[in-house]
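Revision sheet: structure tokens.
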Amino acid sequence: MTSFLKTILGLGALAAMLSAPLAEAQTRFRPIAVVNDSAITGFDLAQRAQIMVALGFSAASPDALRAAALDQLVQDRLKLQAGKALGIKPSKEMIDGTLDQLAKRRDLSAAEFKAVMNNQGVSDMALDDLASAEAVWRQVVRARFSQRVQPGEAEIDSEIALLKNRGEFEYRFLEVGLPLVSRGRTEEGTRALAEQLYAQLNRGGDFKAAVRKYSEAPSSVRAGDTGWVTTFGMPPELQAVIVDMNVGSVSPPFSVPGGLSILKMVNRRASPAATGDDVQLRERVRAQLIARKSARFAEGLLQELRRDALIDVR
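Predicted:
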């Protein structure tokens, strides 16, 4: 709890700075966009921007934050509308369960998470709106694709063989994440900073101090700790980075969506995904394959909904 609270309090001024122009530019409850027949107000936009900053989102400017917040809200309206078409409505239990998951990721209870967000100016209504869309969307994806995401036994056998042949591992890293454009830096300035940090950290520099000073990745709320990351499903570009790393070593800067990342490997272990008895292993692999397929179908459906929607940004 302590790490998240310290970070969230430190972000308060930044959140206010970024969201204030939004509130000033828009009449509080006037629609600024309409998605099919569902309005998004200036208040909705300011609240979502506040949530995003509090959760670790970094943007190069208030305009960039506004665009990202609006994009999220458009997606949420589409998700809720897809649920309505299937007769799926967000219940209190669904909303509370989703908020509880958000809180647990930050080592907080749901009540503590809400209190922290309230202190940053985020209303319960805005949090419930966020949770409602995610809860409904999970039900939509399950209703639409539950049969199609089920892997066959041969597919599970193939994945297990691949896991065992590759010798799956899990890794724990500290991360410094640098947006390409941020805090007045140009892309060239960010790349130069990344190289400078790598040179210092590779010589034994204080990695956690670099996280505190520079990192804008979501992991910064946990002092840069990524948690355990498995090679199962890991992006190829990250696999290429870690292949020559040992515990204690630091990676050169490498590209991630929207920025650059530098990693320090702090631990490594055999992945539970490739261990255990046959029944346990099959169930783990089955669940991972379902999650992977569900994410792919969900992204495709969202793109389809967006393509067919009437979206009026004012």
